[in-house]
Every structure is written in C-alpha cells, then in structure tokens.
Amino acid sequence: MDFKNVVYIAGFVLSYAYDDLSFEKIASQSHSYWGSFYYANNAIDRNTTTCARTQGIGYSSPFKTVWWKVDLGRVHNLYNMGILFKSYDGFASRQRGRFAGFSLYVSNTDVSTDSDIKSSTLCYKDGPQLPPLNFTTTCTEHGRYVVFYNERLDGVTYPTGYELRNMYTELCEVIVQGCNETDMYGSNCDILCPTNCKYNTCHIEQGTCFGCQPGWTGLYCNTACREGWYGDNCSQQCVGYCRDNTSCNHVTGQCERGCAAGWTGTLCDNVCDDGTYGYNCVNNCSGHCLNGSHCNKHTGYCDEGCSPGYTDSDCSRECSPGYFGLDCNALCSGHCINNEPCDHISGFCSRGCLDGYTGERCNISCQPGYYGKNCSRACSPNCKTCRHKDILCSCKAGWMGDNCTTECIGSYGENCQYPCSVHCINQTCDRFNGNCLCDGKYDNQWNVERTDLPTHSLWMVAFFVSLIIHIIFISATLMSRRKTFLKQKSTTVDKSEISRTSVSNTEQNTSTNTASNYQELQISKNENNYQTLHQE
C-alpha cells in the first residue's frame, strides 16, 4: 500500500469526528474494465492498492457516460465525501483530465439510468478546473445512495485539459462521512433531529430539516399546517365535508369526528351511494320517494314527494287506514269485505267487496235488478225496487216478502198493504186490484160500502166537486155583469133624446122602457131556466 495514500486516508478519517458510512457497503458501476481485479467494491475496502476501474469513454469509445455508486443501507445525514483517484507517476495531468467534469449525486432511492441519476440531488459538480487526485468536498445532505457520474458526449466542447478519448475512471477509495444514526446531528452525532423531520433526518450541522413529515412546516418542522390544509408541505386542502364543519386532521386529511351527513370515505370526499343517507351513509332511504327518485343524502327526506300510499317527510309511513293514493288524500270506498281497509297504495279491496258492491275498489253499486256478492244475484221480477245490498225489495201489486215471492192472501196492492173488503165473500179479493169475488169470479165493480177506498180516489172526487162549484160561480158572475152593462147603456140613450122635442122624448122613453122591461124579463127568465137546469 502506498504510504502517501495511507496517510491520506488516516488523515481524512481522523480530521472529522463523523462516522465512515461507506466502508464495506455494497457498490456497483455501469461497466467494468476487462479482468477480475477492478470491482466496484475495491473503492470502499480502505485498501488504496485496489481500485475500481471502468471501460473507457469518449470519442473513440462506444460508451459516453460512466457511473459508480454505493448503497449506504439506509438514509443517513451526510457531512462530507472524499475520493482518492488512481495516480501514475509522470501522468498526473492525464489522470486529472480523465476525472475532470465529474458530478456527485445523493438519492434516497436506487438510480441507474442517466436521467434518474441527474434528477437526484446534486451534491457537487466539478469544473472547469481540473480536480486534485485526492478530492474532498462538504455535502450536508441526506440520502442512501451516493453516485459518482461523468460523461464525454459527442459534439460537446469541453475545457482545456479534459481527456476526451480512452477516459478511464479509476476510483481507489470513496469515503462518505456522516452520522451513522439516522436521526442524529452535530459534530459528534449526539443531538437528536427535530421530531417531525422527514425521514427523521436533518442538516448535520444546523439541525434544520431537509423536509417535513406530512402535516408540519417550518425550518424545524414544529409548526402544524394552518386550518384547512394538510399533507406534505401542507399543500393539500381539506375537502370540507367533516362533521359539524370541523377541519380535517392536518397530517392525514381525515375527519377525526367523522363525515358530515351525506358523505363517506377516508377523507369524507365521497357522496353517499344512491339509497343511503346520513352520517357515514349508514342509513337506508325508505324506498318510497315519488317516481323512484332518491332521497336526500343528507336528511333522508324525499324532496320530490312520496309514492302513492306513503306519507311523512321521508315517506316511511303508510297511509292511515281508510286512505290511499298520492299524499294519502283519497278515501277508501268503505265497502271492502268485513269492513277491512283498502290497499294504501291503489285503494283496491284485495279480498273482495261487501254485498251490493263491485269493482276493484268496491265503489260501484249493483246495477238495478241485481244484488248480493259481486252483484251476481238477480232480483225477483215481482220487485218494484230491489236494494243492492241485500234481498230486501219493494214489491209490485199482489206480492209480498223480502224478495217479493209470496202472493197476497186477504190483501192486495203493492207489498199487499191493503186488506180486502169485509164485504167480499170470505173477505177474498183480487190480490192486484182488490176486486171482490162473485160466484167464483172477480166482480168488475167494487162494493160501494167499502171502507178501504184508496186515499187517492177520495182526492179525485173532491177535485171534481170543487171544479163544478167554480164553473157555477163564474157563470153567475158573468151574467150579473151583463145585466149591469145593459142598464148603463139604456140610461145613456135616454139622456141624449131629452135634448130634442118633448113629444119625441116621451115616445122614445116609452119605447125604451118597453124594451128594457122586455130584456129584464128575458134575462130573468134565462137565469131561472139556467138555475133550474143545474138544480135538476
């Protein structure tokens, strides 16, 4: 082992109180030089005589990039890095030109492609000056993978001194120092990082967090997200559907008291499924909202109304007995069998109707002439009227009984309401009109001494008597008025003749009186004759 290199390693390690994180860890490289002596792990064995070596890159090589990396096993707080490049006597400038332009990256995840490497955290970028062969740099980052990367790309102009052909990378030792315990910092790695630092890592010198755990912010991650925000860097906004309008948890975004009515899910950002409602959507809708609409997912109410047969705000209650239909406003017919209530939805009588009614709702009375169950029975032809509910009839003349099937005996007329005359033989008469039976036959004339004359016949007799009296009275009145008129006419003629000669007046008066007397006698005679005729 080269004495100078041993001194370099010892001095590098002893100059800092930090832990050697890369010693005997797992290393890898993009490609290796031919032979079995240039493994990637040679750079972390702390033996300067064994080096890792890759294929050459540059203008004359198929390879244009090269990388070497070490896996530290877990994320650590880093402080510095030291690299011992291969040295050849008399070729120091060439070796420095080969290493020139390299970069050091730190990553929390494994990276292997050029793009992934370049997207990691850049810890150091060399250039344009040529680097020393025993390189050291401070890198106060955190990470698990440390990557050495270099390139010689076609068409790129590089600074003077850069080797562009057969550029071999030879790393004899790579030393990464930091705190072995992830959550410690300080020159002696004896101070605990702030509790809420991301990955429990912090700046190895200052103790500030590289990033915060979800829900926290600030240099030391000791400030909770402001209300209504949560998550990484407090960049996510609460959805706003927590119960009682409370804010979500600043770390997880969840609603600690549960979701508001109508919402569900881990973050209370999912609306209740159709048919459910309430807190955490655990309640089922009644299923009776109008036209199959869904209930309100917050209250469970049927905002559009209820299906026929149901009532209440959530349509969970059937119509009261005796009512049915939309809003339970329709009355049942009241004629269902056994006085049962009708169906609360349709109003139908499912078990049938009371006697005398028909139809699905039992709201149709039997047609005239029918009665009984389902109006299936016909009334007797002897019935004048038949009650649809039962067999009770009003009978035609000559019949009696509930169904008018019994003939009158000793009586006659409708419902046999009139008894036969006591003057009929054996008090037997025609059961239809009451005529008495003579010599085995019915007489056409009623007995004049009957005491059972129908009331309507007496009224007719009285009517005709009254009519005759009115005719006589009107005739007498007319005759009296005619007599008065003739007298007035005679007096008028006498007065007109007096103004002429006295002789003429005397003759005229005599003539007029004679005529007047004759008329009075004639009228009196006529009246006497008229009265005589009427008296006869």
Structure overview:
The longest helix is centred in the C-terminal third of the chain and has 44 residues, at 455-498. It is rod-shaped, with a radius of gyration of 66 Å. It is an alpha+beta fold. The chain has helices spanning 3-14, 92-99, 114-118, 455-498, 502-535; strands at residues 19-20, 26-29, 52-53, 65-85, 103-107, 121-125, 134-138, 142-151, 170-179, 184-185, 191-192, 216-217, 223-224, 229-230, 236-237, 263-264, 270-271, 276-277, 283-284, 310-311, 317-318, 323-324, 330-331, 357-358, 364-365, 370-371, 377-378, 383-386, 393-395, 399-400, 406-407, 411-412, 418-419, 437-438, 441-442. It is built from 5 helices and 35 strands. Strands 1, 2, 3, 4, 5, 6, 7, 8 and 9 form a 9-stranded antiparallel sheet that branches.
Tell me the layout of helices and strands:
Layout: H1 3-14, E1 19-20, E2 26-29, E3 52-53, E4 65-85, H2 92-99, E5 103-107, H3 114-118, E6 121-125, E7 134-138, E8 142-151, E9 170-179, E10 184-185, E11 191-192, E12 216-217, E13 223-224, E14 229-230, E15 236-237, E16 263-264, E17 270-271, E18 276-277, E19 283-284, E20 310-311, E21 317-318, E22 323-324, E23 330-331, E24 357-358, E25 364-365, E26 370-371, E27 377-378, E28 383-386, E29 393-395, E30 399-400, E31 406-407, E32 411-412, E33 418-419, E34 437-438, E35 441-442, H4 455-498, H5 502-535
Antiparallel strand pairs: 1-9, 2-4, 3-9, 4-7, 4-8, 4-9, 5-6, 5-8, 10-11, 12-13, 14-15, 16-17, 18-19, 20-21, 22-23, 24-25, 26-27, 28-29, 30-31, 32-33, 34-35
